[in-house]
Amino acid sequence: MAKKKAATTRRTTTKASKKTTHKAAPRPAKKTASKKASSKAGSRKAAAKKVAKKAAAKRSTASKPSSARRPKPGKMVYYFGAKGTEGDSSMRELIGGKGGNLAEMTSIGLPVPPGFTITTETCGAYYQAGKRLPHGLMNEVHKHVSTLQKETGKVFGDKKNPLLVSVRSGAAVSMPGMMDTILNLGLNDESVEALAEATGNRRFAYDAYRRLLNMFGDVVLGVEHRAFEAAFDGLKRRLGAADDTDVPEAGIVELCELYKDVIKRHSSQDFPQNPFKQLELAIEAVFRSWNADRAITYRRLSGIAGLIGTAVNVQSMVFGNMGDDSGTGVAFTRDPSTGKNIFYGEFLINAQGEDVVAGIRTPQHVSAMAKWNKKVYDQLLKIKTKLEKHYREMQDIEFTIERGTLYMLQTRSGKRTGAAAVKISCDMVKEHLIDEKEALLRIPAGDLTQLLLPSFDPKAKTIATALTTGLPASPGAAVGRPAFTADEAVERAHAGEKVILVRKETSPEDVDGMHSAVGILTSTGGMTSHAAVVARGWGKCCVAGASEITINTEKGTFTVAGQVFGRQDTISIDGTSGELFAGSISTIEPTLSGDFAKIMRWADKYRTMGVRTNADSPADAKRAREFGAQGIGLTRTEHMFFGDQRIRIMREMILADSIESREAALEKLLPMQREDFVGIFRAMKGLPVTVRLLDPPLHEFLPHEAKAQEEMAAVMRVPVKTIKARVAMLHESNPMLGHRGCRLAVTYPEILRMQVRAIVEATIECAAERVKALPEIMVPLVGTRAELAMLRAQIEETMAEVKAEMEYKSRLDIKIGTMIEIPRAALTADEVAEVADFFSFGTNDLTQLTFGYSRDDINTFLPDYLKQGLLPIDPFQSLDITGVGQLVEMGTAKGRATKPELKVGICGEHGGDPASVHFCHAIGLDYVSCSPFRVPIARLAAAQAAIRGERGGGDGGDGGDGSDGGGA
Amino acid sequence: MAKKKAATTRRTTTKASKKTTHKAAPRPAKKTASKKASSKAGSRKAAAKKVAKKAAAKRSTASKPSSARRPKPGKMVYYFGAKGTEGDSSMRELIGGKGGNLAEMTSIGLPVPPGFTITTETCGAYYQAGKRLPHGLMNEVHKHVSTLQKETGKVFGDKKNPLLVSVRSGAAVSMPGMMDTILNLGLNDESVEALAEATGNRRFAYDAYRRLLNMFGDVVLGVEHRAFEAAFDGLKRRLGAADDTDVPEAGIVELCELYKDVIKRHSSQDFPQNPFKQLELAIEAVFRSWNADRAITYRRLSGIAGLIGTAVNVQSMVFGNMGDDSGTGVAFTRDPSTGKNIFYGEFLINAQGEDVVAGIRTPQHVSAMAKWNKKVYDQLLKIKTKLEKHYREMQDIEFTIERGTLYMLQTRSGKRTGAAAVKISCDMVKEHLIDEKEALLRIPAGDLTQLLLPSFDPKAKTIATALTTGLPASPGAAVGRPAFTADEAVERAHAGEKVILVRKETSPEDVDGMHSAVGILTSTGGMTSHAAVVARGWGKCCVAGASEITINTEKGTFTVAGQVFGRQDTISIDGTSGELFAGSISTIEPTLSGDFAKIMRWADKYRTMGVRTNADSPADAKRAREFGAQGIGLTRTEHMFFGDQRIRIMREMILADSIESREAALEKLLPMQREDFVGIFRAMKGLPVTVRLLDPPLHEFLPHEAKAQEEMAAVMRVPVKTIKARVAMLHESNPMLGHRGCRLAVTYPEILRMQVRAIVEATIECAAERVKALPEIMVPLVGTRAELAMLRAQIEETMAEVKAEMEYKSRLDIKIGTMIEIPRAALTADEVAEVADFFSFGTNDLTQLTFGYSRDDINTFLPDYLKQGLLPIDPFQSLDITGVGQLVEMGTAKGRATKPELKVGICGEHGGDPASVHFCHAIGLDYVSCSPFRVPIARLAAAQAAIRGERGGGDGGDGGDGSDGGGA
User: Fold this and answer.
1) What are phi and psi of B7, to 5 degrees?
2) What are B831-862's pLDDT values in tens digits?
3) Nearest chain B residue to A894, by CA
4) Is B836 on the interface with A (CB under 8 A)?
5) Which of A638, B59, B193, B933 has its CA 20 to 30 A from that of B486?
6) Which SS3 state, helix, strand or coil, does residue B688 take?
7) Nearest CA in chain B to A853
8) Is A137 in a helix, a strand, or coil?
9) Do B784 and A870 touch (CB under 8 A)?
């Protein structure tokens, strides 16, 4: 039972998490499969191997049978029904998710139309044999059809009481793009008459037949769907029928003839009248669809690998459209939106499943069934409860009532919102269905964002149509009017207007405007562009890289999808989906429930890795602390220099042409910088604060546009040409690879000294107030041991100087370490560690350099790369474990080999990505650091990693790993 | 004897190679010393370890004694003289190069003034004891002085027959910056009178005394030299003496008193009258000088590490200035400029060694000695021959004749030019002094450049003063007048003028102008800037990054050192030294001797690694083949698109807004591209040609300046704004990390198809002419297996297509591989190798990404880095073995683990750098590829690596590893 539970709990997936899930969870599986060569080379390290190995182990666990049932080697077909059920849901690798659940439901006594499943291994054998059905398969199928005939009392292709079946694909993981469904298989020119007689409804029987002909022709014989449509349209015109339902019985009968002609004409073969021939061809079509372009693309994009093929489910047909005593419905065992424990779903009388999905008729709430057929409704309620108890998980079910008899057609874990995931998890612990660890594993960590930020009302969003979709750079929802410059945004926001800053891209000069805006929209730049990083830090909504919008800053307009928007037009942006809408869409403010707090408490109880935050101001620090951050992993000091007064002094310093005048400017910055630190230290009292020394190239502090340069010249009373000259002098072809980071400290040691002085003075000032400050000085962009050794000596010298000046007698507890963000630093981490107290992996820059991708320019080719499956995911969003992760792991191992007590963390954007957090846990990092709003995500992800680790399931990713079975 | 020979042969160094030597050779030593932590981390691979280990082994070999003499543990002083010589030149690690050679010369019976050497270990002990002379040292010194007294019959500090000694430092490696020499030690107020009496020359004696006072006061007691100068000047003024020599005996006697006062005043102590006190203080001063700032800086800059200290040589004085029967001289046993076997040197009658060096008097040619003292001259000739036979190497000697008696004061390997190195090596093989392998090892590979390119006449250069010094970007010498744009250069060169293209930096648009110019001078850009790379490829002289020149392109002038140069001013640039001169300096054209050919033959006989070339045109290919290239390792196809006609079509393609119009433009490029390949294939008939697909970002093909954009618009008949818009669209923040390399092929597969088509069509065309073409298609900038897999499929598809179209029936022998230049590709080389036939490490980009340095911008901080010793050398010049090398080694190992037959080479600029070539050999690469003019260097370096490898001396670098002993 324990095993079964473990298998089922992996199925948790909500709609919102689908994307994350496909990205994150299956990736380790891919690694295992494709990485043999890698380990061959002997280069991968223990932990990364462990991750892959555990993923493999987990998969084999999942496919291990319960004690009752075992897969038999070579067995190709598994029956489910009263005549004996041979599979269960733990065998999903072999019989697919759908097949497993059908067998499982049958086993626990639910009314499931009997049938059988052809294994995924058989599909593999089909391809191994050069696309031929394996020898003996059809014999097996015959045998199982014969069992089915016995159980149903019907006969396949019979002229009196024909057995009809559906044929569906069903892999171990839900996978759009494969063949979906063929219904009513077994009908032919003779049995259709028998069906007409048996049901007393000739129109129904021929309608079933024409559906088979259409689906079979399309899917199995490759006849284009529109050929059938054309035939139907012609008939309707001839009969003067506006709608399908207007066509009388005779018309439908004729239509079947027309369809047979279409098949003959387009495929040069007759529709096979032999039902076994139909079945054989349909099975082969399902196998073929496993390698259809769409399916391959889907697997590639979702990182699904290591599966051998799809299973085929053959199930006896039941009909919800046999009259008003029949019906069909879909339901969730709890509310997937709120998580409340209420039965939630819809049903339609006299309809087939596809009618509910198609939305032609408006379905009723499932509770209305009570009035329609109390007995059936009560039965369904009992089944609902039984399923939840059995699976210990919220279920998404499909059912059909044929002439008053209830049949269950499908069950699977239900998708849910982040809020629902939290509530269901907590409730199920209360209901003793699952334990705390299981509860934590059930919540896709990334979905917690939904609980922390405002979001658009899903109902309102359904009605609106997105003008375009950019990158979901920073989640949340924002409604406002466009502002086209930072100054304008500040001004209008000051006047009380809600503005969305619309820029081609943002730069540090824009931060004031960004802060004033309710949201940010850029037309270029990726997930880690300046706009995205800053916005995420603030929890401010941002859509980046919306390349379809064209901005005219001078006119104050932007154009998208042929529409022009100006300063007076309200727009809405969804930072969670990347969508841009015209007009105002209503938003929902987040409310943090007690359940959320409970989940966080549990997470802290089980996680072993620390979670810090990236924060540059006391306000950010305070908020992050409220979200549970255990310190600051990254304070970027450059953001502190962009304030109105400070940027002026900063520019003075940059224009200085002697050390003396540079030092004079720095002297003015010192007290400001010190106060910044005092504020942050107070907010983080008693917790470590990693301060990164100045990192960006100096030209980032100078204006690059003529007008701004003139303004600066006027303010600073220097000729414009002086400014232009300095901008030109500081210009770099590739600033990312230029004069920045510790390279600045090497050439301008006085800047480093001022910053260190500010840190030490702030520390001592805090000590006087009895505030324990624990700064850690981080030197950025180190590539060699020599750099850090030299700068460390300067830092220590300054520390000693300030200590002496201020007559501070106690020990200064200030660590000195470095950011590992240059590949060479990771490669030579053994040397660098000799002079470092800690490492913090700057995975943004490390990703840029390891891939040779500029995050500012990646949008020129990233979309092509993702579309063509050359990259499974934007590596700036989720850590590239194979490449960049290899360096992180190597750097950690080498660093600790030199200095076992070395503290190692990660402070790139990946610190808030669940899959990356999992990897960091697996390789034994001390902490991850992420933006304040992602702290809860990191806490939960770290707990999940710890729990999976102890359970032996070491794969990365969210709580869910894709839904099971699937299909309509 | 074999061991001794091995030790001595390592000493070969020529003046020109000094820089290379200091950079390259000692580096591995540094690695060994500082890399323990690295191997501790278990991360370094076998080969790199081997390099370090062998370097260590070699060092211990060098310090191993000959069978006759052995260092005794704890022994601090080694005597040399008739009373017993305890050291020899194999003990240089212990007694320094100078001490070793003094002992060695004594042993073989040469007339060396006796003395003794205090070991380097004693210096180490001095530092270990907190800068105190080790216990017992002065006892030992006393004992050895006593032996010295017995041998010379003189007594230290004696009032009658005083023993005088010199004290000199002398480490294992020549090292400027340490204390040089104190002469005449042992003189005091009493012994000076005895010396006067013994020599019958009181002025001489007091002059010797005042020299001692001056040197001792300066070097030992820290009195500034100018204090002594001031005293001397005052005296001369008082005596009305214009020159030192005008001061009479009494004045010199008085000067000694004045000097003693100076010492007293400035050091607050008396000049020690006790000679043993003098000696003790002098020894300590030598030890102290080991850690003088200058010495530390020198060691850091030269990468000298792992030495424990300096030795101290104490030697009895002889005087060349005792009258006209005395004299002194320096000589080379062969001509160091041409290598001819003639005795070559200078001598001065009645002078001390420093007088020869100081250049106050003009010395005579050494052959003039024959007339002066035939006996002594004959004796010197015999000694010369004996020394060469003994050391089997050209020697640089110093000698003194004291009253008709010859004394040898120093011998060491002589520095020589590249041409001399080649001739001496060949001659010595003929003379049976050395074997072929030894001959190869003796020639610093980098010095071969001097033989291949024109150079400035050294005599002419001595007279001129450089206006400024930039980077020696491409060797050679050029004289011409400045041209400030590429067009101007083309025009004026066409009119027959010799022009030097002077640009801030060059871009691909400038190639025509660069080609027309005789030399290139840029004010920005590093050793691997566009100008440098292109110039080296052509063997054209280039000075890059001459940051002190300011160019005014509009006016057609540049300013440097306060002088303005226009179109009519002739300038000279030296690409070997980086110097810029005003006016015309005479050049010497290279003539390749038969000896050169012989050396190359020998090199090919012993090397095991292939040498290819980087060539983009049939002419380059032909020349490289003449230089011995065994194929092309890199053909950059983009250079082919900059011709006048082609750039227009290229731009058409870039402006195209549909695949169709892009394909139409490509269609026009196809025949041109095909003809390029046909030409190259013909030139390289039968040899492999690696063709790299289009690499640079497309915006490099568009003009960026307004005027050029207008011209382009006119030519192409499109609005300027179209061009501006495309330029803006293609603009990237960091083009190095942008849309280039295989990323272009992913988004524009039609470009790749055109290029592959051209390659295949050219191959088949050649086959028709019976020219065997062996193209290898190289995909640039691959970071993931997926990229290469997809592009490989497209390449194969196109190959098959063309083959079918052209009805070519034979097998197409075209390999498909990739450049490994992205760190991730090296890290995941096991995966990438699955779809690659070969790897070629692009170490330029790999260095950029591994360090995070943009080679276009590195000049903003590289000078500081080199100056402060943060980098031992520009990593774009010589491969960073620890970091970048680690990736090269890892990539090779991982790649071959997947595919043992994988062909692996290197095609970055490092392929022509001797130290890098050595590393490539050590890790087992199949070939290196470098610019045509560096092919001979690579052939020789590869041979040296192979020979050292088999001899167990696996350190990288040139033939020499710094001169021995050293000192004046």
Assistant:
1) -65, -45
2) 999 999 999 999 999 999 999 999 888 878 88
3) B41
4) no
5) B933
6) strand
7) B737
8) helix
9) yes
User: What's the mean per-residue pLDDT of chain B?
Assistant: 87
CA distances from A405 to A40, A346, A386 (A): 58, 18, 18
Collect all residues with Cβ–Cβ distance below 8 Å to B561 and sequence separation of at least 6.
Answer: B467, B468, B548
Residues of A in contact with B732 (CB under 8 A): 854, 856-857, 860
Active site (catalytic) residues of B: 530, 907
Instruction: Give contacts of A 805-824 with B, CB under 8 A.
Output: 821-824
Answer yes or no: pTM beyond 0.95. no
Q: Convert the pLDDT of each residue in B912-947 to its tens digit.
A: 999 999 999 999 999 999 999 899 999 999 999 999
Closest Cα partner for B358 from B366, B346, B368, B369? B346
Question: Which position among A907, A920, A921, A930 bears the catalytic label?
Answer: A907
Reading phi first (left if > 0) and then psi (alpha if -120 to 50, else beta), residue A929 is in beta
Tell me which of B32, B734, B744, B790 to substitute to probe the interface with A (most A C-beta atoms closer than 10 Å).
B734
Q: Provide the token pair at B759.
A: 């390659």
- Alpha-helical segments (H) within A591-748: 594-606, 618-626, 644-655, 659-683, 706-716, 720-730, 742-747
The Cα of B465 is separated from the nearest Cα of chain A by a number of Å equal to 28
Classified as helix, coil or strand, A552 is: strand
| Share in percent of chain A as helix, strand, coil (round to 5) | 50, 15, 35
Nearest by CB to residue A868, choosing from B790, B848, B897, is B790
Residue B835 DSSP SS3: helix
CA pair distance B302, B414, nearest whole angstrom:
20
Q: Which helix (H) or strand (E) holds A582?
A: strand A579-582
DSSP H stretches of helix in A495-593: 511-516, 530-538
CA distances (Å), B328 to each of B205, B262, B347, B400, B552, in order? 18, 31, 6, 4, 54
- From the candidates A530, A699, A910, A921, which is the catalytic residue? A530
In this complex, the residue of A786, A787, A852 whose CB is nearest that of residue B783 is A852
For chain B, say whether A750 makes contact (Cβ under 8 Å): no
Q: Is the distance from CB of B129 to CB of B105 less than 8 angstroms?
A: no
Cα–Cα nearest to B618, from B645, B597, B642, B639:
B639
Q: Tell me, yes or no, if B830 comes closer than 8 A to chain A by beta carbon.
A: yes
User: ipTM for the complex?
Assistant: 0.81
Kindly state whether A857 is in contact with chain B, defined as any CB-CB distance less than 8 angstroms.
yes
Name the nearest CA neighbour of A314 among A191, A183, A120, A131. Answer: A183
CB pair distance less than 8 Å for B737 and A734: yes
Interface contact B864-A897, CB threshold 8 A:
no
| Facing residue for A736 by CB, picked from B734, B833, B834 | B734
Nearest by CB: A860 against B739, B784, B853: B739
Alpha-helical runs (H) found in A684-741: 706-716, 720-730
Give per-residue pLDDT as tens, A666-689.
Answer: 999 999 999 999 999 999 999 999
A60: buried, middle or exposed (CB in 10 Å: 19+, 13-18, 0-12)?
Answer: exposed
